Amino acid sequence: MAKHETPLLDQLETGPWPSFVTDLKKQAETKPEVYDILGQLELSYEDRITHWKHGGIVGVFGYGGGIVGRYSDMPEKFPGVQHFHTIRVAQPASKYYSSDNLRALMTLWEKHGSGVTNFHGSTGDIILLGTKTENLEPFFWDLTHELGQDLGGSGSNLRTPACCLGSSRCEWSCYDTQEVCYQLTLKYQDEIHRPAFPYKFKFKFSGCPNDCVAAIARSDISVIGTWRDEIRIDQAAVKEYVAGNYPANGGAHSGRDWGKFDLQKEVIDICPTQCMWLEGDELKIDDKECTRCMHCINVMPRALRPGAEQGASILIGAKAPILEGAQMSTLIIPFMKISKDDEYEDLIELIEKVWDWWMEIGKNRERVGETMQRVGLPTFIKVMEIDPIPQMIKEPRSNPYVFWNEEEVPGGFARDIDEFRARHKA
């Protein structure tokens, strides 16, 4: 295939950072169809519109998700990308790979596709960019039979679950994120591969409130590790931090001299709920007021640790639609034990309860957070049979009207109305 003139793309190679343009040019030496990727992209820059057609159903036998159909709207000019499908491959929990596995995966992609990859997509999948329709089944056969890996999710289904490093490497993790992510991925294979939902659905697992997979901003159900007892304090270590014998933030900023660590200024004064103070040289925390922001623990990791009674907070409804803008998920369950011993029974029960409700009343292409927004949070928590808590409230009410259910009013709601009407008639 012929090379294309790409003056606009060439400018991207002149900056200080590595450029995908350089990588694509190198790949095109062994995969000539990549020249047509560059040519079509250059034309898109010139015309300021995409030249990929929208939509197109394509997949492998038995699966409705995992492959994103992509076709050029100029196949005569760019025959190498007339169909150039994206394959999503499920990533291992926490994205742990062996070098042997990566080499085998890349060998497979060089055999059946363009060799162009994206590690990773925003959901988490391994993204393999560009292959022909006739190559899909052979690739899928080799992927599953030779490597023992599977496709991820795409379309109106459960997207591939993702998790942080969890207990494997992080001392703050309050539950085993890898295990629950793996088990739920196995349990919900049908929901991942055969779209049946109103729209996409994601759950992500973060081991602590640092939320390293940004579950609170991106997933329909966020499982974020937390604790419900008191932050553990090593007062001797606190004194060492104050004396300057331990570096703040675990020495993460050791390349620059930030001056002497000031506990009052750098921790206590910027606590969002002002729940910390010093009594003499001892640090005190009013744990009832703590919102688990993790700042104090991150700054003084040798002095402070999460509490010992650990589990997770469950938040529901993150979304980022174009028209209304991004919305973080809402706290629904403040604390839930996350244990393999009970096979994650409570979490699974909640997930499936949300699905049953959403699949019944959710509109087409409406995320569960948008459904919650449409019907209102009070209706949602009532359907979920969950008691409301102050943490669910975004802001104080501004509407002066209060509505009561009849069973909530002592003496009977109807009788009170009758008395009210009688007084006003008089």
Automatic annotation (TrEMBL):
SUPFAM superfamilies: 4Fe-4S ferredoxins, Nitrite and sulphite reductase 4Fe-4S domain-like, Nitrite/Sulfite reductase N-terminal domain-like. Signal peptide: none annotated. GO terms for molecular function: 4 iron, 4 sulfur cluster binding; dissimilatory sulfite reductase (NADH) activity; heme binding; metal ion binding; sulfite reductase (ferredoxin) activity; sulfite reductase activity. The keyword ATP-binding does not apply. One of its GO terms (biological process) is sulfate assimilation. GO terms for cellular component: sulfite reductase complex (NADPH). Keywords: 4Fe-4S, Iron, Iron-sulfur, Metal-binding. It comes from the Bacteria. Residues 281-309 form the 4Fe-4S ferredoxin-type domain. This is Dissimilatory sulfite reductase alpha subunit. It comes from Desulfofustis glycolicus DSM 9705.
